[in-house]
Amino acid sequence: MQFNYRCTMCGERFKIAPDVMLCPKCSAEQNPDEPLKGVLEVVVDGDLPDDWDVLDLLPVEREFFPEIPVGNTPLWKPVNLRSELGLKNLFIKDDTLEPTGSFKDRASYLVAAFARKYGINNIVVASTGNAASSMAGVGAAAGISVTVFVPKSAPKAKL
After folding, report:
1. Which of 33, 39, 62, 130 is the most exposed place for a label (fewest CB within 10 A)?
2. Positive or negative, the Cα torsion across 36, 152, 130, 65?
3. What is the pLDDT of residues 43-97, one digit of tens each?
4. What is the CATH number of the domain that holds 114?
5. Distance CA 134, CA 98 (A)
6. What is the DSSP letter of 39?
7. In terms of residue numbers, what domain contains 141?
8. How many CB atoms lie within 10 A of CB 112?
9. Are 36 and 21 in contact (CB under 8 A)?
């Protein structure tokens, strides 16, 4: 299974890399005050192995992920709420059990793995709270320095 970027405008494919953010051909036609041109999407070529797990669905090889327990949190079946709302297939995912107590650990886990794969030693994030604390926690576990920029408007309770 191989992950690549594909331009949503022209369809050209690119290998995933830190310096590839937009299609160079389509983004060169960008004019001010119009929607972004050359946006890339991730596409998958090939089939999943029979014994796949969730890490096989991510565009970074498993050896680059930090050795911390991210994901695989409980899925609750709220019986009373299901009945009250008439939603028999309602589930609640309990991501308070993630390492920093936030569902944002899932994204930070992938960012840290991407950084490790490409030898990036410092991650910079702008956040008013949860994304920053998540990236700091996961970054520490991955041995990556994290620099956080916080706006003046950030709630003091989150600092």
Report:
1. 33
2. positive
3. 988 888 888 888 888 889 999 999 999 998 999 999 999 999 999 999 999 999 9
4. 3.40.50
5. 9
6. B
7. 53-158
8. 29
9. no
Token reading at 40: 């890339």
Amino acid at 10: C
Both tokens of 51, joined, read 């014994």
Q: Into how many domains does the chain fold?
A: 2
* Structure tokens given for 118: 């490409």
Distance CA 45, CA 11 (A): 14
Q: How many Å apart are CA 137 and CA 109, to the nearest integer? A: 10
Residues 88 and 116 in one domain: yes
* Helical segments of the chain, H only: 24-27, 79-85, 105-117, 130-142
pLDDT for 23 equals: 97
Enter the tokens of residue 17.
């890399």
pTM: 0.80
